[in-house]
Amino acid sequence: CETSEEDVLNYIIRRMNTYAFFPHMFEALCHFNGWDSGIVDRIRAAIADADGAGSKGGVGDEHTTRELDALRRIRNLYPEEWVYQGNAVGSAKDCALATRERLDAGADGILFHGSPPKNLKPLVDVWASYRPQGKFDDRSVNPGL
After folding, report:
1. In terms of Cα–Cα distance, which of 35, 38, 61 is closest to 50?
2. Which of 13-17, 20-24, 56-60, 123-127 has the lowest mean pLDDT?
3. N or C: which end of the chain has fewer CB within 10 A?
4. Both ends of the chain: CA-CA distance in Å?
5. What are the CA-CA distances from residue 10 to residues 24, 31, 122, 133 (Å)?
């Protein structure tokens, strides 16, 4: 929430890049979300080009580029809906709405990862206004508890 372009590139695009190399993962995401899986090969080729011939991602994002211009080029290959449907991105309100949409669609919890807590604080600050009433009354209002 409320992050710079550099943070979006490092926290979201780099994470998506690592998932692109897990066998069949993006194909499954495309299938279940109705996305064009033909785009995946172009993204993988751009990542491989940016990372060099020897790198194919890894357990985390430590094996993929941190070079901002390369990340921008790769970001531009991802359809916008992939970024916004797969992540909570933008203002605190945007992130709260994205979180609420997932809960309204049937999720019984949300895992936030890839961002440091300071970037989630704006979401926590507004969450009480977006939290579904009645559905999670047995849980803390603070999503971190």
Report:
1. 61
2. 56-60
3. C
4. 19
5. 23, 26, 19, 34
pLDDT of residue 65 exceeding 70: yes
Give the angle subtended at the CA of 40 by the CAs of 68 and 69, to the nearest 5°. Answer: 10
How many alpha carbons lie under 13 Å from residue 18 in its C-beta half-sphere? 16
Distance of CA 10 to the CA centre of its chain: 11
Would you state the structure tokens that stand for residue 115, as one six-digit string? 């961002």
Crossing angle of the two packed helices 92-104 and 117-127, in degrees rounded to 10: 70
Q: How many residues does the chain have?
A: 145
Q: What is the DSSP letter of 76?
A: T
Which amino acid is present at 94? D
CB 115 within 8 A of CB 11: yes
Q: What is the DSSP string of 88-143?
A: --SSHHHHHHHHHHHHHTT-S-----SS-HHHHHHHHHHHTTTSPTTTTTTS-SST
d(CA 75, CA 72): 5
Q: Name the residue among 81, 82, 29, 20 with its Cα closest to residue 47.
A: 20
